[in-house]
From TrEMBL:
Name of this chain's protein: Cytochrome c
Gene Ontology MF, one: metal ion binding
Alphabetical UniProt keywords: Electron transport, Heme, Iron, Metal-binding, Transport
Chain ranges of the Cytochrome c domain: 75-174
Organism placement in taxonomy: Bacteria, Pseudomonadati, Pseudomonadota, Alphaproteobacteria, Rhodobacterales
Coiled coil, from the record: none
Organism: Cognatiyoonia sediminum
Amino acid sequence: MFDTMTLTKAGGALCGSLLIFLLGAWAAEIIYHVGDDHGGHGEEHAQGYVIEVETEEVEVVEEEEVDVEVLMASASAEDGEGLWRNCRSCHALEPGVNGTGPSLYGVVGRSVGTEEGFGYSGALVAVADTWTEENLFYFIENPKGWAPGTAMNYNGLRSATDRADLIAYLDSVDD
């Protein structure tokens, strides 16, 4: 079948092919690689031309501290009723009626995670004990940021006055 000479020729052909492949890769690296010690021009000249772009300095606006008590004193329950439409797809205002989220009847002042018949994720209980106006205010702004791990998928209500109005409405619904 095969003699020693045939195996030697096949091995030599394989080694020769590998050597040619490696030499080709080495030559391509020298020719095409830019930015190292092989004679390239460096990273700043890697492109054929550079497009100059004027940049504007972005002014960083710090968020001012919101006084929740002052906002709640001027909150409008009537305006909050219009904002309720964002919540009613998952929550109800009737006592004991749970949807995707728990009933919000009597939520202001209620202990966190105690609505009967609703299975909470547990993340809320770790953050607060009672749904005070301030806790609701910051929770409604960014639920996942205020209580990481909560199952609530709402992105949040960014306007501080809208949040205060909504809380005033929720507080006015119950006795």
